[in-house]
Design brief:
7 strands; Rossmann fold; single chain; binds adenosine-5'-diphosphate
Length: 221
């Protein structure tokens, strides 16, 4: 199969809550000139704006539950329809096998498909240590992991995410394992997964460099 960088236009990034997925999403979108869509950031922005969608989503997010598939599928389908011609990076979607099947079907209707899935496999011990240092910007959705007071992108005061307490986190972790890891297997069966194992704390740049080499190797495979 010819997998030159030109043909890699639709990336999916999968990683557990607090895996560093947001940071690597920024890296990937800059490096490969991709337009990112973070469903979590988009939903948080809707909640902050108190839109009808946000008010509906908040009920689920505050309870550390997934927002229903049909709600998220609708948002993403619309976004993909508006971004047919550019490179795209989906971050936080698909999060269930049902979402993955809907995504595949929607892309197929446009004559497109998922080109590569970057799976950030961070050990649970590392993730636990990171989790409470995480903050999010209620305005632009930027997340940070060092307890910053102001958003580095837009200067808005950062908030601790209401879904970042230990109980909620444990639930999100379990949902990730039971509902989202099967998404990786769904795409592994299609030969599209690039897996990056992270077991030690280190600079995000080191992980980014490993992702870049793995993507390059995937292109040459
Ligand atoms: P995390 O990866 O830490 O769970 P996200 O920012 O990706 O954080 O998502 C935050 C919350 O937004 C999720 O816990 C869930 O309630 C909701 N959400 C985001 N993406 C999806 C999705 N694809 N399907 C269902 N719910 C979603």
């Amino acid at each position: 199969m010819d997998r030159t960088m030109k043909t890699l236009k639709r990336f999916v990034l999968v990683g557990a809550p607090a895996s560093g997925k947001g940071t690597q999403s920024s890296f990937l979108s800059e490096k490969y000139d991709l337009k990112p869509l973070s469903t979590g950031a988009l939903l948080r922005a809707e909640v902050a704006a108190q839109s009808p969608l946000g008010l509906e989503a908040k009920k689920y997010m505050d309870a550390a539950q997934f927002v229903p598939d049909e709600v998220v599928n609708g948002i993403v389908a619309q976004w993909l329809g508006n971004n047919k011609d550019c490179g795209c990076l989906l971050d936080g979607y698909p999060r269930t096998v049902a979402q993955a099947k809907t995504l595949d079907a929607n892309l197929e209707k446009m004559g497109l498909g998922v080109d590569i899935v970057v799976y950030l496999n961070v050990s649970p011990e590392l993730i636990e240590a990171r989790m409470l240092k995480r903050k999010a910007c209620p305005k632009c959705g930027e997340t940070t992991r060092n307890g910053e007071e102001l958003c580095p992108k837009c200067g808005t005061p950062m908030i601790v995410r209401t879904d970042d307490n230990p109980e909620a986190f444990a639930k999100r972790r379990k949902d990730y394992e039971t509902l989202t890891l099967p998404v990786v297997e769904h795409y592994r069966a299609q030969g599209k997964v690039v897996q990056i194992d992270v077991t030690e704390e280190g600079e995000p740049e080191v992980v980014s460099a490993r992702i870049a080499s793995a993507v390059a190797a995937y292109c040459q495979a």
